[in-house]
User: Fold these one by one.
Assistant:
Number 1:
Amino acid sequence: MTKKSFLFLALVLTLFSSPGIRVVAQENAPNIRVVVDMVQLNVAVTDNKGNYVTGLHPSDFAIVEDSIPQKLATFGEGNEPAYRVADASSTSEKTLAKAGGQQTQADPKSAGEDASQSLGSMVAGANVFLLFDTSNYMYRGFVFAQDAIADFVRSLESADKVAFYSYSRDLSRSAPLTPDREAVLRGVRATVAGDDAALYNCLLLTIKDASHFTGRKVVVVFSNGPDNSSMVPPEDVAELAQSTGTAIYMISTQLAKLEPVSTAVFERMTAATGGKAYFAKNWRDEQRAFASIRDDLAHLYSLSYYPQPNPNRGWRGITVKLVGEHLKKYHIRTRNGYRPQPNRFAAGTTTASASEAAPSNQ
C-alpha cells in the first residue's frame, strides 16, 4: 500500500473518531447510532441591494427539515447572546433545563432563565478559524496577505475567539482558539511560504478541530491557488462542514479564478455551508473581502432547534423561510442541510444513555 493510501485511510478514520452522544443499541444488533442533538443555523438576511436586514424576531422565521416543521429553541442576532424561545416544545424545555444545569424538575421560569444563560454563552460571538495558504503559490503578495489577515483579526468583535492555522502540504496550528488577539497575531507574523498546496486535506482537519467547540463555528480560508496535493475530495470537506454546522468563507486571488474548476468548487463549497467566496484582484480587494466577512459575522441570526422525530439517517435537507408577505422580498443564506454523524461502538460495549451524555451542536 502506498504512502498516499495510508494518508487517505487515516483521514477517513479521523472523520469518525469524534465523541458525541451515545445511545444503547438493541441487544445483539450493531451499535451504530446517529448523533442529532441541537441543530444550529447561522442565517444571513439581506434585501435586493445586499444590505443586511436587522431587527427580525423568532416568529419571522420558519424552519423545515425533510418536510417536517421544526420549533425554534433559541434565537439571537449578531454577537448578542441567544435567548430561549418561549414556545419551545416541552421536550426542548426539559433538555434546555438540563443544559442550564437543572438535574431535576424545577420551576419552569427559573429553568428557562438558567437555560437561556447557558445557551447564550454557547452562541454569543463566533469561533473563527483562519486558514492561511503558505504554499509556493503565495510567494507573490505574501506580506500583503499577512497584513490583511492581521487587520481582520484586530477588527473582530471582542466576543469572538480566533484560531490561526496555515497550510502548504501539511497543516500548522500556529495559534489555538483563543480570545488573545496578540497570540494570534504572533502566529500570523511567524508564517513563511513554501511547498505544495494540500488545501482540502488541511481544510478538513481544520473543520474537524472546529467541530469540538459549541456555538457558532466559522472557517475563513485565504487561498492563492488550486489544490495540487490533497487526497480528500472537496465534496467530503463540504459535507463535514455542513454536518458540523461550520460555515466556510474563502478569499482567493485572481490566480485561482483563472482555473474554472477551483472557482466552481470554492463557490459551491461556501454556498452549501452558508458562507461566501471572494476573488481578490489586489491587496485592497483582500482587505475589502475580510471586512465583508467581519460584517457578515456581526449580522448573522443564530437559530437553533431540536429535530422532531425523523427516521432518516442520511442527508437531511433544511429550508429556512421568512413568514409574512412583507418579508418575502428578502433573501436568506444558510446551510442547506446536514448528515447526522454516526458513532460506532464494538458489540457488547456499555454506553451511556442520551440523557447522560453531553449535548453536541450539529
Note: The chain is about 35% helix and 25% strand.
Number 2:
Amino acid sequence: MAAILEKHELRDLDWQTALLALVIAFFGVWQIHNALPTESYWSKQIIGIGIALVAFIAVCFTDYRRLIDTAPVFYVIGLFMLFLVLTPLGVQVNGQKAWVRILGLQFQPSEFVKFPTVLMLAKYFGAKKGGVLTFKEMLIGIAIFAGPVGLILLEPDAGQAITYFPILAAMFFLSGIKVRYVVLSVVLAAVMIPAAWTLGIKYGKIKLYQQERINAIIDPDSVDPRGFGYHTIQSTITVGKGGLAGNQGDTDTSQSVLKFLPEPQTDFIFAVTAENTGFIGCVSLLLAYAILLSRMIAGARQSSDRAGMLVIMSIVCGMVFQIFMNVGMALGVLPVIGVPLPLMSAGLSAILSTFVAIGFVVSVKLRRFVN
C-alpha cells in the first residue's frame, strides 16, 4: 500500500488524531483487563484494534467523496445485513438477538450500518444548494433513517436504535431546519412520549424489565436491589469505590473481578475506569474525548464540501451522545440500555465502526485543499 501513496499524503496525514484515538483504545484494553483479568476479552480487543487500524488506514487514503458517491451501495448492503439478524443466521446473546455469525465470525450489524446511514443522509442533504429544509426533504431524510432503525427495533435493540437519532438531528440542524419544525417536534415529544409510555405499559409493549430500569433511576428505593435495580446499584458502588485516584491492582475487593458488576467490559467500562483510576482517571478520559472531538470538529470546518462536513458533524454528535449515555448509565442517572462507550467498550463491531468513522475524518482533512 505504501508504494502507491504520495509522500505529501503521508506527511499531511492527521497523525495526532489517529494517535489520540489509539491511546483511548489501549486505555480501554487496560480497563477491560482490569475488569476481567482471567478472561480473553482484553486480548480479543487488541486483535480488534489491529483489524480496525487496517480499516482506518484504508479509509484514510480513500477519497471520502468516493465513499459518499457509493453510499447507496453501502446502505443497501447494510439493510441486508440487518435483515440477516432476523433470519436463522441471527445470534442471540444475553437474551438479545442482535448479532450475525457468518463463516465463524460474529458481528453486530447495527454498529456497522451506522456509518453507511450517515453517508446516505449526507449524500442526500449535501446536494442541497442552500436555504431551509422543505417538508418533503425532511420526509425523505426520515425515510432513509427509518430503514435501518426500523430493522434494529425489530430485533429488538432499542439501545442501538436510540444512538441513530442524534445523527438525524445533526443532519436536520445543519441542513437548515425551520424553527417551527423544531418547536413542533419538542411539543410532540412532550406529548407523545408520556402517552406512548402509558399505552405501552397498558398493552404490554413496554416490558417489565424496561419499566423497572426507568424506575431504578426515578425511584431507586422502589426497585428490587437484587433484581432490576441490580445493574444500577452495583455500578454506582463501583464508581464510588474509586475515590480520587482509584484502587488499581486491588483485585481482592474489585466489584468487576468479583463478578458483582454485570458486563464490566462493555456497558459498564466507565464504572471499571472509575474504580481503577478514580476521579482523576475519569476526568482525564473525558478530557481526551473532548480533544478528539474538537479535532474532528476542526476537520468538519476544513471540509471542502458540504457533504463531508455533514458526515463528520453527524459522527461527532453520535459519539457525544454515546459518551453521555454510557457515563450516565455508569453514574446511575440514566437507564441501562446497553450503549457502548466509544473506543473503550469491548467488541469488534464497535471498535471497527468507530475507527472507520475517524478514518473518514482524517480523509477529509487530507483533502481539505482539493476541489
Note: The radius of gyration is 21 Å.
